[in-house]
Amino acid sequence: MASHIVGYPRIGPKRELKFALEAFWDGKSSAEELQNVARDLRISIWKQMADAGTNFIPSNTFSYYDQMLDTTAMLGAVPPQYGWTGGEIGFDTYFSMARGNSTLPAMEMTKCHYIVPELGPDLKFSYSSHKAVTEYKEAKELGVETVPVLIGPVSYLLLSKSAKDVDKSFSILSLLEKIIPIYKEVLDELKTSGATWVQFDEPVLVMDLDSHTLDAFQDAYAQLEESFSGLNVLVQTYFADVPPETYKVVTTLNGVSAIGLDLVRGEKTIELLQSLGFPSNKYLFAGIVDGRNIWATDLSASLKTLKSLEEIAGKDKLIVSTSCSLLHTAVDLVNETKLDDEIKSWLAFAAQKIVEVNALSKALVGEKDEAFFSLNTAAQASRKASPRVNDASVRKMTSALKNSNHRRTTPVTSRLDMQQKRMNLPMLPTTTIGSFPQTKDLRRIRREYKANKISDDEYMKAITEEINKVIKLQEELDINVLVHGEPERNDMVEYFGEQLKGFALTVNGWVQSYGSRCVKPPIIYGDVSRPKPMTVFWSTTAQSMTTRPIKGMLTGPVTILNWSFVRNDQPRFETCYQIALAIKNEVEDLEAAGIQVIQIDEAALREGLPLRKSEQTFYLKWAVHSFRITNCGVKDTTQIHTHMCYSNFNDIISSIIDMDADVITIENSRSDQKLLSVFREGVKYRAGIGPGVYDIHSPRIPSTDEIADRITKTLGVLDMNVLWVNPDCGLKTRKYAEVQCALTNMVAAAKLLRAQLSSAG
């Protein structure tokens, strides 16, 4: 009997880490107090897994921000601009890289919510964070033997980027020879401390790797082989199946004792094992329990699968595991007091998934908990038969969607001309992305309203006053296209989940997005429809307060899908089409109510892109189609905006163009304006576009000159008649003082450039 957990949520069941981090960042608590909260969380997690009977318990999966940044600290790979001079990396340097500081911007964050290492040939590496060893020892002192987890050297490099101004001939994999010695130091120290297992997370192994990369992978592990002596080494993969050629390489590595495979997202993993077999001298860590969703595992079906794997790997070589880290799920179903019993019986959060893994492990050796399995079987049957899940009218409407591409008939250039005649916007129009700061008072008002502690009238008055404040601020700043600030919304996805049929909401189903940012994804359990308008009242209320255009703010169907816990009993695209129809109804109601500009955010479109190129075309086809469904029926004079987060769009720019939005705002500043390179390469973008001019994830306030410089660089590749000026993202996480200063500088920069362009032309 053997069980393993790839990783576990670190935020705490009640977001203890979030509050501790924010108190520390605000100067309200000390580093020691933050470290004490972190230590208590780690201890609680290790004891929980040990009490459940877990054999392979991970350590070093806790992080104050993210594990890639932790690895950057371990390797001493600090970009020179942060002024680190050596020694153990402390909070000042660590959080400066993550969040920026008063003088420096943060490092780039990518769609997977990790801080991207910036590496070059001249960077000096050194063993500069002993966190992996410290946490292993911490657990050992409690009597808990753990498996220290390290981001593997190849994945670390391939998930990094070349530093600015590095020669194009530089190969980032050439740095393996510099970082391998540090990995050896870590392994030697872990062995000295008593570790007998170590887990290398190598998620890039599920991607399409060329022969050069596979050779580098083999070479890296050959160099590490000497340090593997005395250790059992697990190479862990997740999020997809491993390609056959890569599988052949991984399974023949000397010194590697075990391979971890995802049997959930890796839909071809079973077929791969059946066709290529599995080496008799290695352990198979079978990721059978879904680490990325909250549905209870079908234990009977999973047990059957595991028994078939015993015949391939051998009974004494099969370890029951999660498909990936449980970091991506909510923490504990016990804390859900408002979910009804039926839906609750269909679910398993991280704490419950630990129990599932161990139940399957015991069942494999003849210690099956018949009562637990029976309850699980009943819950599976209940979900399949529930009338709450299927809606025939919704299914009829979505099936009809496949007969059209839902494209607006008038070309975007002609639409923009008509929209400009209607709105008469200046050159380089300014706007923001949607949300304004969510103050403590605002969160208190929403909380008290949900708890029935204030009346409808009191709530409406408070929200209306906040909207009026936001409108007046934007008018004073002379922003051209306004937003209402979204004071009524707790989250851009959960707000819609509260109002759409087929969704369930949790009380404490929090998941870490990055750093202290947490989200509470709604649960899509059934067919989706819109019972009534969701945003029209507040949008029209805001529009009545100003003569400037107000954007109606919606979250797009792909983002609602990708940032929810999605039902796993039908293809994701079917659910996305259902959401698209619901948003389409809302778009048309906003237009009928007089809203001229409607923003349909697709912040997570890139985030949902499959890792394997062979699967990307199909995803982009239905994702883009879903977006077009939402706005295909509006008038040419109604301007449709969309917003996207993160900057890695160069490889999907044709799909972005195919979305056919009138204006797209997009993250750009944190990535050294990487987005602009695609336009330098000759891509013609004829719609409106607003590459973000400053990073909202950092408290740093950019100067007018800095923003003007960004706009000037953008004008080098984009026509001034299509360019918009806006921040990178929504402003909800910032303070009003920061927002007012930054937007003041942004508007001043836009006016400065307008004057220069007018005088020049």
Describe this protein's structure.
By secondary structure, this protein is an alpha/beta fold. The strands form five sheets. Strands 1-3-5-6-7-8-9 form a seven-stranded parallel sheet. A five-stranded parallel sheet has the order 14-16-17-18-19. Helix content is 43%, strand content 11%. Strand 6 (232-236), helix 9 and strand 7 form a beta-alpha-beta unit. Helix 7 packs parallel to helix 8 (211-228).
Can you tell me the residue ranges where pLDDT is under 50 for at least 5 consecutive residues?
A: none
Beta-strand percentage range: 5-15%
For the secondary structure, the number of strands is 19
Helix content: 40-55%
Shape: globular
Beginning-to-end CA distance, first to last residue: 77 Å
Helix/strand class: alpha/beta
Number of helices: 27
For the largest beta-sheet, the strand count, sense and barrel status come to: 7 strands, parallel
How much is the average pLDDT? Answer: 95
- Radius of gyration of CA atoms, rounded to a whole number: 26 Å
Kindly report the spatial arrangement of strands forming the biggest sheet. 1-3-5-6-7-8-9
How are the SSEs placed, and which strands pair?
Blueprint: H1 16-25, H2 31-51, E1 57-59, H3 67-74, H4 91-99, E2 118-119, H5 131-141, E3 146-151, H6 153-158, E4 161-162, H7 176-192, E5 197-201, H8 211-228, E6 232-236, H9 244-250, E7 258-262, H10 269-276, E8 283-289, H11 299-313, E9 318-322, H12 341-345, H13 350-364, H14 370-385, H15 392-400, H16 412-423, H17 440-450, H18 456-477, H19 494-497, E10 501-504, E11 511-514, E12 517-519, E13 523-529, H20 536-543, E14 551-555, H21 557-562, E15 565-566, H22 572-592, E16 597-601, H23 613-631, E17 639-644, H24 653-658, E18 663-666, H25 676-680, E19 688-691, H26 704-715, H27 736-760
Parallel strand pairs: 1-3, 2-4, 3-5, 5-6, 6-7, 7-8, 8-9, 13-15, 14-16, 16-17, 17-18, 18-19
Antiparallel strand pairs: 10-13, 11-12
Helix pairs in contact: 1-2, 7-8, 11-13, 15-22, 17-18, 22-23, 26-27
